[in-house]
């Protein structure tokens, strides 16, 4: 289930009820000695009587360690369910959009196809950023594209040129260190004034600003850019 981008109050009623009904609370961690971000978000809704089950999802590029981690997580969750526990898996943001829970669900379908799971959606960081700034993510017949920012500027350039050509909104996720070259690229393509920057949205240190106001330097991993290169012809003001 998705717990939203950071603010515990953005957790849905359905998610809160699922947490309350659980006897075991599972959540992803990048390392077993680290606290999970999803667990931190849900902390106000967790009970002392609920057992915690951190599941390792390593942040690596290699396929094999990630596949092994997904399989081990599925086995751990399946074992708890077979033992009669009610397990809830917490996932930051939405559980179907670039989410750890998607991998766990796919692994569970192979490991324990007889088990059933309910998927509860959550608020995305893109939606929360747009709401914080009063930006519409998409209007009328606009085709919104949501993608992780490519590692290479040339790939990002093509995305930006396509968005500019068609006047379509674009969400670039996981900006982080790439902001050093993304901001100058936006400026070069005359898109900087049409971009909004969001960082750690929903957390106490949230930053939501016009992209032009954010220095071109390395930023945290959980950062994104919303781009609106054009507006529809029909709007409330004419």
Structural features, described:
A five-stranded mixed sheet has the order 4-5-8-6-7, with helices on one face. A three-stranded parallel sheet has the order 2-1-3. It has helices at residues 13-21, 37-42, 63-82, 100-111, 125-133, 153-166, 179-188, and strands at residues 24-29, 51-56, 87-89, 145-148, 170-173, 195-199, 207-210, 223-227. The model has no long low-confidence stretch (mean pLDDT 95). The chain starts with 12 loop residues before the first helix and ends in an 11-residue tail after the last strand. Helices cover 34% and strands 16% of the residues. It has seven helices and eight strands. The protein has 238 residues and is an alpha/beta fold. Strand 1, helix 2 and strand 2 (51-56) form a beta-alpha-beta unit. It is elongated.
What descriptors fit this protein?
238 residues, alpha/beta, 7 helices, elongated, 5-stranded mixed beta sheet
Question: Which helices and strands appear, and what pairs or packs with what?
Answer:
Elements: H1 13-21, E1 24-29, H2 37-42, E2 51-56, H3 63-82, E3 87-89, H4 100-111, H5 125-133, E4 145-148, H6 153-166, E5 170-173, H7 179-188, E6 195-199, E7 207-210, E8 223-227
Order of helices and strands: HEHEHEHHEHEHEEE
Helix content: 25-40%
Largest sheet: 5 strands, mixed
Please count the helical segments: 7
Sheet-strand content, in percent, reads 15-25%
Query: Pairing-aware structural class of the strands and helices?
Result: alpha/beta
On the 0-100 scale, what is the average pLDDT?
95
The first-to-last residue Cα distance is 42 Å
Indicate the radius of gyration in whole angstroms.
Answer: 20 Å
Globular, elongated, flat, extended or rod-shaped: what is the shape?
elongated
- How many beta-strand segments? 8
- Pick out the low-confidence regions: none
Strand order, sheet with most strands: 4-5-8-6-7
């Amino acid at each position: 289930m998705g717990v939203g981008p950071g603010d515990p109050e953005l957790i849905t009623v359905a998610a809160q009820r699922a947490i309350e009904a659980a006897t075991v609370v599972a959540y992803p961690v990048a390392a077993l000695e680290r606290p999970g971000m999803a667990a931190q978000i849900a902390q106000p809704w967790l009970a002392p009587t609920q057992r915690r089950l951190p599941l390792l999802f390593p942040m690596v590029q290699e396929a094999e360690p990630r596949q092994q981690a997904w399989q081990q997580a599925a086995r751990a969750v399946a074992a708890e369910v077979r033992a009669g526990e009610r397990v809830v898996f917490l996932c930051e943001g939405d559980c179907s959009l670039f989410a750890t829970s998607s991998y766990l669900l796919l692994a569970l379908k192979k490991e324990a196809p007889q088990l059933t799971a309910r998927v509860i959606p959550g608020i995305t960081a893109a939606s929360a950023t747009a709401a914080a700034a009063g930006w519409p993510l998409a209007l009328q017949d606009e085709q919104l594209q949501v993608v992780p920012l490519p590692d290479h500027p040339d790939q990002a350039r093509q995305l930006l040129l396509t968005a500019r050509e068609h006047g379509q909104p674009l969400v670039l996720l996981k900006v982080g260190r790439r902001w050093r070259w993304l901001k100058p690229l936006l400026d070069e393509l005359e898109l900087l004034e049409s971009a909004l920057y969001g960082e750690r949205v929903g957390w106490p240190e949230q930053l939501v600003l016009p992209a032009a106001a954010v220095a071109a330097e390395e930023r945290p991993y959980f950062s994104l850019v919303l781009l609106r290169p054009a507006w529809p012809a029909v709007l409330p003001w004419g």
